[in-house]
Specification:
Elements: H1 3-12, H2 21-27, E1 29-32, E2 40-43, H3 45-49, H4 51-62, E3 72-76, H5 79-91, E4 94-98, E5 108-115, E6 118-125, E7 134-142, H6 146-157, E8 161-171, E9 185-191
Parallel strand pairs: 3-4, 3-7, 7-8, 8-9
Antiparallel strand pairs: 1-2, 5-6
Length: 192
């Protein structure tokens, strides 16, 4: 058994059905130099692959918003979909996909945002929500905050009340939370 598999087994020993946040963190794999040299990618797929860990993750991301009157949960493409859909189910809310351009089949609105080397954008269906709906934004990680800020602007274009932003991981050293325009951030893990 490899060192990574051994670490996963050790992290979950005695907590197969309901791991705590420290055990969830122990499941995250660091992938050096991905997607480019000098970056350490936080791979959450071992958390997603473990039923008990996934269940705990979803419960922990949804719990602070249980009594917030959330009517829709918006997930940012692509890993955000994996977490937003079960969070929506947990909260008894609908799910809204925020997608890259050209992926949605119906009429859309678009919000552009700046990347380190260029621009990208997110789109949402024009009928995804009605004005005044209480929306929770969900993604796996917040880094520089550019994508999250664009998602918030996009949802507000449709009249959403963006109640919060729930993520598994905050890379706080990149200061992305400062770009959320007053939307409260809930992060299970924070890397300073």
């Amino acid at each position: 058994m490899g060192r990574a598999a051994s670490a996963v087994r050790e992290a979950l020993s005695g907590a197969v059905h309901s791991p705590n946040v420290n055990q969830l963190e122990a499941l995250i794999r660091d992938i050096p130099d991905f997607p480019e040299k000098g970056v350490v990618f936080k791979d959450i797929t071992p958390v997603l692959a473990h039923a008990g860990a996934l269940s705990q993750l979803i419960d922990s991301m949804a719990e602070p918003f249980t009594d917030s009157g959330i009517t829709k949960v918006a997930g940012i493409e692509a890993r955000g979909f994996t977490l937003a859909t079960p969070v929506a189910d947990h909260l008894g809310a609908g799910f809204i996909p925020l997608r890259k351009p050209g992926k949605l089949p119906y009429e859309t609105v678009k919000e552009e945002y700046e990347l380190e080397y260029g621009f990208d954008s997110l789109e949402v269906h024009t009928d995804a929500l009605v004005t005044g709906e209480r929306v929770l934004l969900v993604d796996d990680v917040i880094a520089t905050g550019g994508t999250a800020a664009a998602a918030i602007r996009l949802l507000r274009q449709l009249g959403a009340d963006v109640v919060g932003f729930s993520v598994f991981i905050e890379l706080a050293f990149l200061d992305g939370a400062s770009k959320l325009d007053g939307v409260p951030l809930h992060a299970l893990l924070r890397y300073d």
